[in-house]
Design a protein that fits this description.
It is a single chain. The chain is mostly beta strands. It has one domain (about 5-729): Maltoporin, Chain A (Beta Barrel). The protein is globular. It starts with a helix and ends with a strand.
């Protein structure tokens, strides 16, 4: 049971404690006598948005870069945390189970169903890694562990990043071995849900400046959670997570460097946290007679060779990743004796039992090999260029089984084999000291071999079977220009395109005259963006803003035939054409005081409006594009001040909020409108730090999501964890 007065009081006390540190700095400054002199301390952030290292302020598109320092300050450990740090994006948590999480940028990729590629390109160390029906549309601990930098590129990125980078692209960059020295790190943590964290890293410079190895790992064991199942005496959100990483960096003479990285990631987690409002009074004390659970094992092998020459560099990159995932949950969402659960099982017809239990299980096996080769360089007269090619091949096998539903029990077998290859290139040129313009292009060939089989298991009836091969040849391109108004102010314009391949609906039954398409076509996007980037007051203030318009052709969305029970068919369809427009603004400010304290502030605000503008179905024309919040806001505050010669005290806040928009394509369910605050406070010395982290500080209870079938997902209440880290430098 919640106590609002107590909750608010605790929140106020915690906020006061964190902000009190900032206030303390003012007292110390006054004691020093004169008003402190303020100085800018924002450091340059480098990104590889154009596959070459350059300042984020130079890149002619909207980019959010979260560097290693910010990852630490604001505890960015997954896509959910990342979405709280940026605006113009929507993180989708469908049921509390991470196997189905996804992120959408600028409306790209709202179609979410089996056999549908994500609309946001996901990359690890520059290589695309997504794919697979179970757990293939999100970044996982295998990639988000031990991070050096996150890069978020907004708008279609089809020219340099290729397939499915429709709404944007996210690249996560791993920390690398250091050739010059040895060091070690240790992390210990404890959570309020009876969980612990043990992690660390060891860097060994085996041959000074030539060969280094890095070993890192992390284990999270959370025995309890918030969703308690008293029937089985288990927590539905308990989890066990393990990361192991081995890296090597070898300087091969003067020009070449080899990087090797192997990751092994295991996740075991209890599962579904969606509940039926008609039968569940308290989702945090919810009896179910079948244990929800999920697991995921993923291995990744990465090898890169880079050669640097006077004219530029050559990069050769290979990645293999293999994933096995399983999921099992109580389909009726209760116990067999509950009449409401029986109704949800649809227990009728031959073979049904009374009472009975109904469950669903899923399993997936996915493997992908990717190779990319590229050369890039620059000339003395202001020409930058890149040429390259990539190829990938993937295999995905998916199986789904529903039991306990009488004649409605069924199995689905799906397999997808994909082969894709492309060539790409681009160039930009300094036409004057102030004006630079360029273009990029990619030509892609892709083939899909797709199979789907749906069988009613009780009577052995095949209700749907399809075996088909499809191929696509497409070209994506970008043109852009930048004009420097001054050394610290520039404007840019950009036109970019993106492409998402079509596919096979896993269930294409035509029932009662309602036609369900067997296939859906490719989706295309073209985006127009104008932006302004500036660094003001000796780099104490960064102000960036952009205005954009995206035209989606053959826009993909989820739909169903409107029937119920065994006759209900969910599918993906090209609903028509859609348009999305928006404005994004971000401001970052930092100052250092005479007492040594450093204050950092960030604020980002985005407004977006999307609409279906053309369709064969006149009833959907004029509807808002789903999963597009009208307003999103992200705010951050950090402060660190020395209290002795060797000891600093620090605190940081992370705030995110969204307003407006719809969750469903027919605009019948609105998006939730939470305002979330996370807080971190601690003390550190050169060799260690100790911190307390509080998530959902204000105990926000706005629902995560609602469904038209009467299901909801509650937001997790306030929680905390303590971490201690030791560094051997």
């Amino acid at each position: 049971m919640k106590h609002p007065a107590l909750t608010n009081r605790i929140s106020q006390l915690l906020l006061a404690a964190g902000l009190g540190i900032v206030g303390l700095s003012g007292v110390q400054a006054q004691q020093q006598g004169e008003q402190e002199e303020l100085a800018g301390v924002l450091e340059e952030v480098l990104v590889t948005a154009r596959k070459r290292e350059e300042s984020v302020q130079i890149v002619p598109l909207s980019v959010n870069a979260i560097d290693e320092e910010m990852v630490d300050k604001f505890q960015v450990s997954d896509l959910g945390d990342l979405s709280d740090m940026i605006v113009g994006a929507q993180f989708i948590d469908t049921n509390g189970n991470p196997l189905s999480n996804e992120i959408i940028i600028r409306g790209g990729g709202i179609a979410r169903n089996l056999n549908v590629d994500a609309g946001t390109g996901l990359y690890a160390n520059g290589i695309q890694i997504q794919g697979g029906n179970l757990g293939g549309n999100s970044l996982w601990g295998v990639d988000t562990f031990d991070v050096q930098r996150w890069e978020v590129l907004k708008g279609p990125q089809g020219a340099l990043y290729g397939r499915n980078a429709l709404g944007g692209a996210i690249n996560v960059v791993s920390r690398r071995p250091v050739l010059a020295r040895n060091y070690a790190e240790l992390e210990l943590g404890y959570t309020d849900n009876d969980g612990y964290v043990v992690g660390g890293a060891l860097n060994w410079a085996a041959v000074q400046d030539t060969l280094a190895f890095r070993f890192s790992g992390r284990k999270l064991d959370q025995r309890e959670g918030f969703y308690y199942n008293p029937y089985l005496n288990v927590y539905s959100d308990a989890r066990d997570e393990e990361n192991v990483r081995f890296q090597a960096r070898w300087a091969l003479g003067e020009a070449w460097t080899m990087d090797f990285q192997y990751d092994q990631y295991d996740l075991a987690r209890e599962g579904n946290t969606n509940y039926y409002v008609t039968s569940v009074e308290d989702p945090f004390n919810w009896p179910q007679d079948d244990k929800n659970r999920s697991s995921k094992d993923e291995d990744s092998t990465y090898l890169a060779l880079s050669g640097e020459y006077s004219w530029g560099q050559i990069d050769l990159i290979y990645n293999n990743r293999a994933r096995d995932a399983e999921r099992f949950w109580d389909l009726d969402g209760g116990v067999a004796e509950d009449p409401a659960s029986q109704q949800r099982c649809i227990a009728r017809g031959p073979g049904s039992k009374d009472p009975q239990r109904c469950t669903q299980s899923q399993s997936g096996e996915f493997e992908r090999d990717t190779f990319e080769a590229r050369a890039l360089g620059s000339t003395a007269n202001g020409l930058n260029w890149i040429v390259g090619a990539d190829w990938f091949s993937s295999t995905d096998i998916y199986y789904q089984d529903q039991v306990g539903r009488g004649v409605n029990s069924y199995t689905i077998d799906i397999s997808n084999d994909v082969d894709s290859s492309s060539i790409f290139g681009g160039a930009d040129y300094d036409f004057s000291p102030n004006f630079n313009a360029g273009a990029e292009v990619r030509v892609t060939t892709e083939k899909k071999d797709m199979k789907s089989l749906a069988v009613l298991t009780l009577i052995g009836l095949t209700v749907y079977e399809m075996d088909t091969k499809e191929d696509w040849d497409y070209t994506t391109w970008t043109v852009y220009g930048t004009y420097a108004l001054a050394s610290d102010k520039r404007v840019y314009g950009r036109v970019g395109t993106g492409f998402r391949t079509g596919g096979l609906n896993v269930d294409g039954r035509d029932i009662e005259g309602i036609v369900v398409p067997d296939f859906y076509d490719e989706e295309k996007a073209i985006s127009y963006e104008l932006g302004f980037k500036s660094e003001l007051f000796d780099n104490a203030l960064v102000f960036n803003s952009s205005i954009f318009f995206v035209d989606y052709n053959d826009f993909l969305t989820n739909a169903n035939n409107g029937l119920t029970g065994i006759d209900r068919v969910g599918y993906v369809t090209n609903i028509g054409d859609a348009e999305l427009k928006g404005i994004e603004t971000e401001l970052q400010w930092s100052r250092e005081f005479d007492n040594g304290g450093v204050l950092g502030l960030y604020g980002g605000l985005a407004w977006m409006d999307g609409e279906i503008v053309a369709s064969e179905d006149p009833e959907v024309v004029g509807l808002a594009v789903s999963r597009v919040p009208e307003w999103t806001f992200a705010g951050r505050l950090s402060y660190e001040v020395p209290v002795t010669d060797r000891t600093d005290v620090f605190t940081s806040f992370r705030l995110s909020s969204q307003r407006g928009g719809y969750q469903t394509y027919d605009n019948t369910v609105e998006l939730s409108e939470p305002t979330l605050v996370n807080w971190r406070i601690g003390v550190k010395q050169p060799s260690w730090d100790l911190a307390l982290v509080v998530t959902n500080l204000t105990d926000e209870d706005e629902l995560v999501r609602q469904l038209r079938n009467g299901q909801e997902m509650a937001r997790l209440p306030r929680s905390w964890f303590v971490t201690f880290r030791w560094f051997s430098r």
